[in-house]
Amino acid sequence: ATIQAMADDPPAPADADEVLAQVASDVVELVGHLRWLWLVVAVVVLGRLLHEIYERRRLARSGIREIDAMNGPTFERYLGIMFRRLGYEVEHVGSARGDYGADLVIRKNGTRTVVQAKRYGGKRVGVRAVQEANAARAMYRCAEAMVVTNNAFTQQAEALAHAADVELVGREEL
Fold this sequence. Notes:
The chain has helices spanning 2-8, 13-60, 64-69, 72-85, 127-139, 155-164, and strands spanning 89-92, 104-108, 111-118, 144-149, 166-169. By secondary structure, it is an alpha/beta fold. Helix 5 (127-139) packs parallel to helix 6. It starts with a helix and ends in a 5-residue tail after the last strand.
């Protein structure tokens, strides 16, 4: 009966003010307790941002020895940084689940170029890389195609690239 009587009678204005004051006090207390959590989140975000800046600067200063030691995804990031420094807009399109023969799509002065990145250890880059870049040109609706490597190209790759109008950037140009 008491519960029913309380449900039928709305709280008096003084009671509502007290409830509101108590809720506000509880919120302020909760925020005070979570202040350390916000500080930890801020430190983590700042640390990641600083690490990303450091990595970009480190990659941008990489010489051929560092490039030779990179793995494929790091080499793609390196190329993205270098193309940005040359004034291109860069889109990373490569992935483990099918990139259609492209790792980057770069754009400058309205011209889109598909880039196939090949960081190889000891062997020369062959015809397949040129074929992939040429096919990716159509897939990504690009006007131009390019293969970039830290190595050299086979004679067959150079002949196909010439015939298919695919630009090759080898170790010396890199």
